[in-house]
Amino acid sequence: MGKIDQALNKAVAPPPSSVPEPPRRETTPPPSPPPAASAPSPSPRPSAEAWDARLQLATQPLSAAAESLRKVRNAILHPPSGQPPRTILITSAVPEEGKTFICAALGINIAQGLEQHCLLVDCDLRRPTLASLFGLENGKGLVHYLRGETPLAPLIRKTSQAKLSLIPSGPPVATPAELLDSTVMQHTIMEMAARYPDRYILFDSPPAQAAAETAVLAQHVDAVIIVVRWGKSGREQVKTLVENIGREKILGVVFNAYQLSGLDRALYKKGYYGYYSYGYYSSETYTSGSSSGQN
Question: Would you give the DSSP letter of residue 89?
Answer without folding.
Answer: E
